[in-house]
Amino acid sequence: MKANKVNTIFLILAILTYFSCNEAKYMQGKRTYDMVCATCHMQNGSGVKNLYPSLKPINTSITSSELACIIRYGVNKESSLIKMPPNPALETVDITNIVNYIVVDMNRSKEEFTLDQIEAMLENCKEATVEQ
Ligand code: HEC
Questions:
Q1: What is the 3-state secondary structure (H, E, C) of the chain?
Q2: What is the CATH number of the domain that holds 116?
Q3: Which residues sit with their C-beta closer than 6 Å to ligand 1?
């Protein structure tokens, strides 16, 4: 009887731990997102109408490399009321985690990106930024 009770408690704890650890696949990305992006785009990614674009769902015309470049360099479209500031303090690994968090956890995409892939994307937008 007693062993049964202990087993039940253990099972419940195991299930709780399983679900709390599986909230987001990219937990580190979520942590950084919550600290750096959520003030404007909201913790759930909904954004704020006419001010901060929604990231959940994310605009389908934004490619993953644009996403990486926007995170590092910000964006200032003519049509928008306010611009998004750059994030020079974020390392490539932080950007990789944020991109994967937005793409995989928020937008349920099957595609994930490696550090090398994001590095290459950032190299390309660097060139584009220098040209301007
Ligand atoms: C200070 C507020 C602010 C913060 C912080 C911020 N953004 Fe933005 N973001 C904006 C604004 C404003 C725009 C629209 C700018 C424009 O289009 O000119 C934008 C645009 C974007 C876009 C393009 C969306 C679209 O549909 O065009 C993406 C993607 C994005 N932000 C991701 C992020 C991520 C990821 C972070 C965290 C690393 C972040 N932003 C932090 C304000 C912010």
A1: CHHHHHHHHHHHHHHHHHHHHCCCCCHHHHHHHHHHCHHHHCCCCCCECCCECCECCECCCCCHHHHHHHHHHCECCCCCCCCECCCCCCCHHHHHHHHHHHHHHHCCCCCCCCHHHHHHHHHHHHHHHHHC
A2: 1.10.760.10
A3: 36-37, 39-41, 52-53, 55, 59, 62, 67, 70-71, 75-77, 80, 82-85, 87, 98, 102
Give this prediction's pTM: 0.86
Domain extent at residue 100: 25-131
* Atom number, ligand 1, closest to the C-alpha of residue 67: 29
Would 92 be classed as within a structural domain?
A: yes
Residue 54 lies in a domain: yes
Domain count, the chain: 1
Q: Is residue 53 part of a domain?
A: yes
pLDDT in tens, the chain (132 residues): 677 887 887 787 777 766 665 679 999 999 999 999 999 999 999 999 999 999 999 999 999 999 999 999 999 999 888 999 999 999 999 999 999 999 999 999 999 999 999 999 999 997 665 544
Q: Is residue 13 part of a domain?
A: no
